[in-house]
Amino acid sequence: MAYIGNSPENDGPYVGSGDEYIRTNSNQINQNLTIPLNMNGSSVGPITVGNTYTVTVNGVWTII
User: Fold this and answer.
1) For residue 51, what are the domain limits?
2) pLDDT digits (tens, 9 = 90+) for 37-55
3) Residues 34-39: contacts with CB within 8 Å, 24+ apart?
4) Residue 10, pLDDT above cutoff 70
5) SS3 for 62?
6) Are 38 and 59 in contact (CB under 8 A)?
């Protein structure tokens, strides 16, 4: 059975255990987010931004 949770050493949500894991992210953004200048961000898509929220990209946001 795969564990689903947050890993401090991997700095985020994941499924799996030991050195066999997959990073995960939600497919819905329900908060206002800003990627600062000179910073990079990434998500695995598709990603939907909720109707009343915005993602401001001053740096780079790559969705793969």
Assistant:
1) 4-63
2) 999 999 998 999 999 999 9
3) 34/58, 35/59, 35/60, 35/61
4) no
5) strand
6) yes
